[in-house]
Structures are given as C-alpha cells and as structure tokens.
Specification:
There is one protein chain. About 25% of the residues lie in helices and about 30% in strands. It contains 6 helices and 10 strands.
Length: about 220
C-alpha cells in the first residue's frame, strides 16, 4: 500500500480508510455468520478539488469523476492509477473491466422547464411518458435492461433510466440515464485501454440515441 500511495499522492493527496466486511461470493448468509467474516479495508483517495476519487479495495480499483470535459483528461488520471497499481501489485490480468456514466437531464439548466419529457426523450426510451392518457400524471418511473455489444470480450451494457430528484433542488424532477458498460471476461493488461476507448465511443452514441433532436441541440454539444 505504501508504494501505491506514494505513486498517486500528488494528484490524490487526501486518503480515507474504512473497514468493512468482505461480502460472500454468492447467496445469503445468516447474520451471525456475516459478523464473523473477515474484514477488509476500503481506501478512498481524493483530489484537492474533490472532483476525482480513486477507490481501492481487495480486487477492485475504481476511478470516479464528478465532471470532466474530454475523455483524454479522464484517461490521464486513470493511467496514473493503473501504473501505480501495476508497480505496487503486478497484476497479470483483470477479471472485470467497466465504464459507467450517470447522465442527468435537468430541464431548468437548459431553459426547457416548460417542455414535456416526451419531447425531450427519444421514442424507444420515453415509454409510458408519451401516453396521452396517463403520461402527464406519472410521478415516478424507473426501467432497467441489459443488452449485448457482441464484441470479442462478451461485453454488455446495464441501463437504468427514469426520474430522479436533484440534490440541489429536491422539487425538480430530472431524468437519469445510468449506463454501465462492462465485461466479465478475463482481460490482458495490454487490452484495457482498447476496451475502455471502445466503451467510451459506445457510451456517447447510446446517450445520443436516448435524446430527441430538441434536447440534443439544447445541450450545445461540442464535436470531439
């Protein structure tokens, strides 16, 4: 841990440690059994501005960012983390690779407060909200599905989408598109960036697929 910590200290100067119970591999266990399971440490390293968090637990490394402008910015932070992991622990392969986006559409930020959701979301996503009978009366909606990418790694995308409330203003209903791209196939170290770059491209196209032309234009997209 000392070697890993020193390698990332410049960008992630703050560290928090929390002890937890290592979860069972499968199935449910009685509480008295869970209480006797071995504990493991959960490490969270954060940047000075609080936008970046690097989490390390037994078998898992995760980089979370609250906001970034270009994919190259994200991969530069990730490269630091993966290099530090490789130097400290020398993993030979990864058993799971994932890239997850939580995109929240907040109408007030786009000047679209008076526009109905069926006019902002694409047809395949809007579902019951487009119903002339009940659409205006729906107070909450959440859907989930998984689809295959049919690539060489057996990749899938788990999508959850529906209404959420903003932390800043609990009175405003927003729309969340949560897309988790992943493979559970054993992956060589040298293939990690190729897979993540592909997932990033898929994620951009998928989110665009969820939006109407009106909402896409209101977001003023920047061509990469």
């Amino acid at each position: 841990m000392d070697s890993f910590r020193e390698s990332i200290r410049e960008r992630f100067p703050h560290m928090e440690i929390e002890a937890g119970i290592e979860p069972p591999k499968e199935g449910q266990l009685p509480q008295e059994v869970i209480e006797n399971l071995p504990t493991q440490n959960f490490y969270d390293f954060t940047s000075d501005d609080g936008l970046w968090t690097l989490s390390l637990t037994k078998g898992v490394l995760a980089l979370t960012c609250r906001r970034y402008e270009r994919w190259e910015e994200y991969t530069s932070w990730l490269s630091l983390a993966l290099d530090a992991l490789q130097h400290a622990y020398q993993p030979q392969t990864y058993l799971r690779i994932g890239l997850r986006y939580l995109d929240v559409v907040q109408r007030s930020q786009l000047g679209l407060e008076s526009v109905a959701w069926p006019d902002l979301l694409a047809g395949p996503i809007v579902g019951e909200l487009a119903s002339p009978d009940i659409g205006n009366d729906i107070e909450d909606v959440t859907r989930e599905f998984i689809f295959r990418l049919n690539d060489a790694y057996g990749s899938r995308v788990r999508v959850r989408h529906g209404f959420v409330q903003t932390e800043e203003d609990a009175d405003e209903t927003c729309y969340l598109v949560d897309s988790d791209f992943y493979t559970d196939t054993e992956v060589k170290i040298t293939d990690v960036y190729k897979i993540l770059d592909a997932y990033h491209g898929y994620a951009r196209r998928f989110f665009r697929w969820c939006l109407s032309e009106q909402l896409h234009a209101a977001m003023e997209p920047i061509r990469a």
